[in-house]
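question for whoever is on the cluster today: can someone run the full assembly for these? two chains, 958 residues total. i dont have access anymore since they changed the login thing
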Amino acid sequence: MYELIAGTLASYLLGDSVTQFSTIIGAYLSAMGIGSWLSRYVKRNLVGVFVQVEILVGILGGASAALLFLVFEQVTSFRVILYADVLAVGILVGIEIPLLLRILKDRFEFSDLVSRVFTFDYAGALFASLLFPLLLVPHLGLIQTGFLFGMLNVLVAIWLLFSVPDVIPGAHWQRGMALAALLGLLAGFIHAEDITGTAEAATYPGKVIHAQSTPYQRIVLTRAGADLRLYLNGNLQFSSLDEYRYHEALVHPALASLAQPRRVLIIGGGDGLALREIWKYPSVDQVVLVDLDPVMTRLFSSNNLLTQLNGNALRSPRLSVVNQDAFAWVRQAAGRLAPFDAIVIDLPDPSNYSIGKLYSLSFYKALGGLTHADTRIVVQSTSPLVARKSYWCVHDTLAAAGFQVTPYHAYVPAFGEWGYLLAGQKPWTPPARYPEGLRYVSVAETPRMLHFPADMDYVAAGVQRLDNQLLVRYFDEEWGAYAAAW
Amino acid sequence: MLVIGGGVSGLAAGLRLHDAGRDFLLAEMEDQVGGHSRSGTNAITAFPWGAHYVPLPSEESTEVRRLFERLGIITGYEKGLPIYDDYALCADPDERLLMYGQWQEGLLPKLGVSKAEQAEHQRFFAQMETFRNLRGQDGRRAFCIPIDASSADPALRALDRISFAAWLEDQDYGGEHLLWLLDYSCRDDYGAGLAQVSAWAGIHYFAARNGRAANTDRETVLTWPQGNGWLVERLAAPFAGQIRTRALAVGVQDGPRPLTNLYLPEEDTVLLVESRAVILAVPRFVAARIVHSPAARPDAGDFHYSPWLVANISLDRLPAGPGAELAWDNVAYGQSMLGYVVATHQHLAMNPRQTVITAYWPLDHLPPAAARAEALARNGETWKTLIAQEILRMHPELAGAIRRIDLRLWGHAMVRPVPGFIWGKARQQALQDHPPLFFAHSDMAGISIFEEAYTYGIRAADAAIRHGPHPT
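^ ran it for u. tokens below:
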């Protein structure tokens, strides 16, 4: 059972289930071999050692799923811990069967004994391998399954400690230890959901490989094959398969239109993906990234999978990360900091009143204090197809703040048709060239991005103000209708 | 000159004297100015202790508009309409109502309200709109802020002699939900329900406010995390050096140069202040006790005041609830406590983790004197338990999230516009100045609002300045 748990977990977290399962099961079996070999060194007190092994297997095996989930984000070399855990459990389990044979050897005929022990072992393996995918994982999840089997191991030890205490030296204190282990595992079983939020796993396509609640949001990372996805409060932020389309479209029309962009401000974008695109401009020597949530920027600058995706963009000496509220920061910084050449606003969609403030006329006016005559601002602004009024409301709000606004859009399969708005004190002129190596944005593609077919063309939508939150109401209405239709 | 009282009217008078370059002292008995607009602050946020918003100033509120221009609340004009500072306008959503276990946007009940009742609501608000534009025979608007600018048309003033409840009955308004809303509104602004206040006052609440803006709707109000404490800080700032707190005026002897006894508790002494004029920016019932004059005998016998309890509740998480999202003002249908405002609502930060909510409770279930006696007889712990119960009735999910409750009992929070008061003799007498004694307080209007307090303060200071020659 424990090798099934470890194999599944490794597939969830690291992907590539064939490799994960074969290496985990291989490691587990060879560890069992080591355990069997080590069992020869047990000369006396066979029952006592068996009991202790059971307790240890219970603790280590039972808690391993929870432990691996928890350490996944904290360490850089997750595989070392994974295989160490698999080896330790394998060795302990490997000791079990030879010990059991030796304990029982005086009670049964040898052939009968071997036959019985292995029959039960293999029948048990079949039972477990059916139980695991059909019942345990769907209903309990990996973590609770782990704790459940850990408790079974400890219960075997407890049963022995109470039924044959005479043959176990120190049975008394070992009972205490076993009961403590049982309680610990039970507590883990009960609080399993708190550990990973496995309950939410069902609501996401793909496997949840990281889930964390911060004071500001719920961060969930999922993986399905090569597709890594980030969800904030249940809303998809990117899919690793096509995020390049979204981020190239977000950054390059603005940046490439500038002769020598030097200072760039990113608001939101703690995933470092917009930043990855910005580093494609060698003239950029200073980027300030303002993202409220330190957990986001930390996660995306430390986790292997994520730093691979953003090319370690967050680990640059030219970057200063400010984990502050964007509105307060902008109001403080306006007039005190030198203006930026480009401002990239990559905030979550305006799905609540709190975030709606960062799409308001007041915010854009305050942002004006960080611009000069040639500053180019770009705002990600939801789907002009699904949420047409919302999109044009952001447009009208930027225009009301005194900016010249250019709308454009891009097709991002994970999101659908997506909208952006360029803003500045002067009108925007399409770039004559883009950086090398882009996969989506190009000089040829730009006119298509600028063209709005009739079904998402301009509608007068009004201005998002702090005291009317018009945009949040549109957004709720339009995406609500969309969700209901699907 | 001496200004007694550092509430809004006293501060207005002080600011006007300061602008005129007069030598004056403002004596405030508490350790902080602001009166009923005072505010507090803790590690989470600033919060109000009393008055917490000002509606958009009406056409007639010229002094208040001038002040708002000065403080940058009005940033300019567009097509003749004031442009208000976006950050001072109450952020959306502004109000929500808890009814049948569900929060709905706005305070006008909608859930489970019959078609007939909805028609009645429309009729009422249409009638109020008519009153808003109505002018008396003298050409003045029927209902104004400041109240003294209202028409003197006897037909309109007759509305002051009956109760709002009687007028509503006469006009055939009887729907439960409308009556609740109107009762709530009267309790909110006057600390007394629709049976206690005059019809003129009740209609005034809906018909007087005609202020418009270039950049927001007419219903939007101006507010700050610390409520009107924000205004108090800015009113007092220019002449902070002339304010003496913890100075209690215990007696004012009328005369060509009036003599005032100021008790200073720190030194346990009485300071005798001689001045050219005294502006008594105190409620009428206080003026009645401290003024000693054969000519000016302030009589407070016909002034009735509503007692209130205000509680500031620090929470470890934001209130939630089913239905409409948390608003600035949150009210439960049919509850004795009026509800609460959220101090962090005007904060720009995302998702504050903690907040302070200010709960308002007019104690109008008994006549004022009896309600005061009952309130004083309860100790702080009893009050806190009551407040916590009321909050948890609205928000069972806040169990365990109440970090602390701070209380303030206002024995005389608001003057009560009982039938006959606003256009009666007692108020007319109170409006008389007795140079060199001048009076300024919102209770002279018969309603307790910032605009009245401020305007009377300015008026008294202007009269005092006219009275005496500029000292050289």
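summary bc i know u wont read the tokens: The mean pLDDT of chain B is 95. The two ends of chain B are 14 Å apart (CA to CA).
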